[in-house]
Amino acid sequence: MSTMPVSPAPVPASTPLVVSAAKARAWIAGTLLFGLLAYYFVGVDQGAFSVFGGDMHLHEFVHDARHLLGFPCH
After folding, report:
1. Whole-model pTM?
2. Contacts of 67 (CB under 8 A, 6+ apart)
3. Which of 27, 7, 11 shows the shortest CA–CA distance to 19?
4. Which residue has the higher pLDDT, 7 or 47?
5. Over 90: is that where the pLDDT of 30 sits?
6. Which residue ranges make up each domain of the chain?
7. In 10 A of CB 2, how many CB atoms?
8. Helices H / strands E in the chain, number of each
9. Model confidence over 3-23: pLDDT tens digits?
10. Per-residue confidence at 49, pLDDT binned at 50, 70, 90?
11. Burial class of 45 by CB neighbour count within 10 A (0 to 12, 13 to 18, 19+)
12. What is the dihedral of CA 61, 72, 47, 35, to 10 degrees?
């Protein structure tokens, strides 16, 4: 007695992801804003001239990340 191999069921083609232009612009704007804020906090903020000032000293919090990314800070 022989057995016939069973072929796998056909895989339906995936449908493309459709995103409205307004939603795409919102995602792009949010990503750009987040990127600019991250760039400021890691690359520009120097502590003494910080936008937030006071005792927050964000510069010290991201100090090693600055060196890792190649930003000079002292």
Report:
1. 0.53
2. 73
3. 27
4. 7
5. yes
6. 21-69
7. 3
8. 3, 0
9. 767 777 777 778 888 889 999
10. low
11. buried
12. -70
